[in-house]
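Review form for a predicted model. The reviewer records the input and the model, then writes brief findings.
Reviewer: anonymous (R2)
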Amino acid sequence: MRAFRCVRIRYETPSNANPNDRMRLTLASVQDIGILPRDAVARRLNRELFVALGSTAAVLLQMAHPLVAAGVDQHSDFRRDPFGRFHRTANTSLDAVFGTTARARRALRRIDARHVSVQGTAEDGRPYRARDPQLLLWVQVTLVLTSLRWYELVAGRLPPADRQRYWDEGKVFARELGVPDDLFPRTIGDLERYERDMLATAAVPDITSRGVARTVLHPFAVVPDALYWPTDVITAGLLPPTLREAFELRWGMAERFFFHFVIRALRIWRAIAPEWLAFVPHARLYDERVR
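Model under review:
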């Protein structure tokens, strides 16, 4: 049984409120479940620390689209500060999933604000802008499908209704960022077909995609490539074969063996690890807030 660690949270209330008002304000803060339902599938999946191991695969799926890759190449600080960039992105995403309504909306506004100035011209001469609903949809799809597949490989396949709910919850975030309802694939099956269609048409890596992918995979040139092998394998295992080849990721017998070994090890880890090691801090704070 996982140990539960209590976390002290301080809620601020107006200093001039009477005691009863302060109590009501505090209870309202404690009971604020955020922008997702209380039993959201997104919180079940994204609370698991191991899910973060699939993030590189999601990023490479995003970079397969030349217009997304151009925006990252020309505007992101990922080369100068890869760890800082990852931490800021992960923290903002987890705030959106586990934060109070106000905190979640602030996180999404931060994302949107960063997108405002991200526009330019891609390698092939096409203009792009980060707030393009089609590009926003593609990015959200990669996050939803990669985390879903990775979670299911380790924890087992979700019931069809939960898989659909996970996608419906993903629409909430994309909608907040400006994706109109008529663009969304309706069902999880439609979503997977959309991904296949994109990989056959729009999301085909170009020279910029491959350059960004190399830096994402191996952010520090002084580190020997061999030391990146474990994370390369996990990433390769979560990508379709066409992208493994495009991004020059090996997928031989040794890689397949290691990938399945990691999955088995994570299954054992989930069974024995205490919550403070198995779950992201955002999830533990959420549990303390709404219990």
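Findings: The CA atoms of residues 119 and 129 lie 4 Å apart.
Further findings: The chain has one domain: 37-285.
Recommendation: see findings above.
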